[in-house]
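[Protein data]
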Amino acid sequence: MAKFYFKSSQKEEKHLLPNRRTIDFLLSYSKSLNIIEYNNLKFESILN
């Protein structure tokens, strides 16, 4: 007979503590990202 493995019904919350440098990088990247849509096509460019 097959064994069934179930995860517990309680969700384990993981609290991540990102580095300030990582947050700054992601924010600056998202600000510089430019997406242009043309005839159902998407063009992504970084404005740096």
